[in-house]
Amino acid sequence: MSNLARQRKASIQYGDCLIDFAIEARSNDIPKVLIKVHPDCRVVAHVPPEASFNEIMQAVKRRARWIYRQIDYFKTQQVNILPRNYVSGEGHFYLGRRYLLKVREDSKCTPAVKLLRGFLEVNSRIISPDKTKSLLLDWYKVRAKEIFDRRLDEVISQTLWVKEKPPIRLLSMQTQWGSCSPKGQLTLNPHLVKAPRECIDYVLLHELCHIAEHNHSENFYRLMKQVMPHWEKVKERLDGMAYFYLNDV
Fold first, then answer.
1. 226-246 per-position pLDDT tens digit
2. Structural domain boundaries of the chain?
3. Could you tell me the pTM of the whole model?
4. Which residues pair with 112 in a beta bridge?
5. CATH 2.40.10.10, domain 91-246, yes or no
6. Separation CA 196–CA 206 (nearest Å)
7. Which contacts qualify for 153-156: CB closer than 8 Å, 24 or more apart?
């Protein structure tokens, strides 16, 4: 794939729209060109090493209509998201539900975040957008660690190839919900805790499948189908809200 090594970006025309996309080489275990549209509207074609540039272009052209719709969808989401001011009345997600933010100033209180009667309540001695944002981020990370660990206990019994519970570390990412290291450590995005439990389970199962199959091979997708037969619908649901969850804080 020497020509492809030099061709890392390309574009196609779809109607009046020019669609730019990046080309990323993956292992031989990927049987075909996989195309992803990220919430920030980046388009990436993940390709096997033996794929020719013409094959890649044809694969992207075949998905042009879908790519165009995904880009349009994510652009619409971006327009609907208002800048965060971290003041009372804003909506913030947790486990798939949107809670109204309630900021309270109390010079004698211990700074804390609580879920209280449909509100996400932030108590602080000094009120400022930066302080409220910091308290929220810390709260999400604590809740993420607890929820992810609990959900892992629930779903791990479905993955018979996993011999022992893998460790979890948290890492904020803009384009990934999770990853699995060659040694089996799971890295999860704490923003995932804003999604419904079923979406969290999907990401956990996806990464647990990578313990057996390190690439997105046919065997990998066969395992995913075994542990979550409707995983594609769950993934679509998660992808559809990704921009909101990733830009919620």
1. 999 999 999 988 988 887 888
2. 2-80, 91-246
3. 0.75
4. 123
5. no
6. 16
7. 154/201, 155/201, 155/204, 155/205, 155/208, 155/227, 156/208
